[in-house]
Amino acid sequence: MTAYDTDNIFAKILRGEMPCHKVYEDEHTFVFMDIMPRGDGHALVIPKNPARNILDVDDQDLVHVMATARKIAQAQIKAFGADGITINQFNESAGGQVVFHLHVHVIPRFDGIALKPHTGQMEDQDILAANAEKLRSAL
Ligand code: AMP
C-alpha cells in the first residue's frame, strides 16, 4: 500500500496550516465540519496519529476514532434534532477515498431527506461556522 503522505489536507489541518471549522479535539482525535457536506451538520472525525486509512491504522487509534464518532453522533441528534445518523468511511481510491488521512464521516439524517452527492458542492462558510457552534454546544 502507498505510504502515508504527510502533506495531505487533513495532516495540514491537524498542524494548523489549513483552516477548518473545528468541533472537538481530545488527546487522540480531532473533529471538524466537512467542507462539502452531504447533509446539514456533516462532520469528520480523524485520528491525530498518521494513518492512511483503515488498512494501516493502529487498533487503539481506530477505537478512539469510533468512540469520538459516537460522541459526535449523539451531539448531532441533540444539536440538529436528527432522526438518524449515517457513518461512512472510505479506503483507497477504488473504495471512494479522496483524502488519504483516515476519517470517519458522521452525517445527521432526517426522515425523507436524501444525502447530497459525495464531494458535491462547497458549503457557505457562515453555515459551516454556525453548525460547528451548534455541535460544540451540544457536546
Ligand atoms: P473521502 O476521502 O472520500 O472520504 O472524501 C474526503 C472528504 O473530505 C469529502 O467529504 C470532502 O468534502 C472533505 N474535505 C475535503 N477537503 C476538506 C477540507 N479542507 N475541510 C473539510 N473537509 C474537506
Description:
The protein has one domain (9-138): HIT-like (HIT family, subunit A, 2-Layer Sandwich), CATH 3.30.428. The radius of gyration is 14 Å and the shape is globular. The protein has a five-stranded antiparallel beta sheet. It is of the alpha+beta class and 139 residues long. The model has no long low-confidence stretch (mean pLDDT 97). It has three helices and five strands. A hairpin with a 3-residue loop joins strand 1 (22-25) and strand 2. The protein binds adenosine monophosphate. The site of adenosine monophosphate (AMP) has 14 residues, from loops.
In CATH, the topology is named HIT family, subunit A
CATH superfamily descriptor: HIT-like
**Order of strands in the sheet with the most strands?**
1-2-3-5-4
Ligand inventory = adenosine monophosphate
